[in-house]
Structure formats: C-alpha cells, structure tokens
Amino acid sequence: MVKHIVMFDFKDENRQENLLKAKKMLESLVDTVPSLKSIEVGLNFSKEDRAMDLSIIAEFDNIEGLELYTNHPEHLEAVAFIKTVVSQSKVSDYIL
Q: Helices 73-85 and 15-32 sit at what angle, rounded to 10 degrees?
C-alpha cells in the first residue's frame, strides 16, 4: 500500500471559501479516479505557527496507482485550482 500525504497553507484572500472548494474537489476524486482507494481531507484547527491549513491522506495499492492519480484529468483540475490559492505545500509518499 502507498500513502500520499500533502499539506497546504492557503493565502489569506478568500481563505475559507478556497479551503472549502479545495476540500470538495479533493474529496470528489475518490469517485472519479479508479486507482484512488481512499482519501481523507482535513481542515486544520491548530493555532500553532507551524500548522498547515488543509491536509490530505490518500491511499493507493501501489506506486503505479499513485502515478495514475497524479496524471488523472480530474486531479490535474484540482491541482490547477489549488496552485492559485496556496502559498506553500509539503508532500510525503511512502510504502507500507
């Protein structure tokens, strides 16, 4: 199993609206990307300086499944939007 974790820090402009739109877009991928086995999309509540605004944890059977997800048109649409509203992101991919 492959885990794909991404954390995003959103720009201040329209932050709440953009967070909710990104969350909805990402959650809908489980219905459209066959290789995506599950996805959790969480909004941060921590007040720590190091906290990020939104995190995802996605699961795939293998690296090939992650690659299919990465290049899927619906995922690319979500990425295109998210890139316009975030100030930074971090990613971690690993195999269980």
A: 170
Q: What is the pLDDT of residues 8-47, one digit of tens each?
A: 999 999 999 999 999 999 999 999 999 999 999 999 999 9
- Helix 63-71 × helix 73-85 angle, to 10°: 70
pTM of structure: 0.95
Number of Cβ within a 10 Å radius of residue 48: 7
Domain ranges of the chain: 2-95
CATH of 2-95, one of 3.30.300.20, 1.10.510.10, 3.30.200.20, 3.30.70.100: 3.30.70.100
CB neighbours of 44 closer than 8 A, spacing ≥ 6? 51, 52, 53, 54, 55
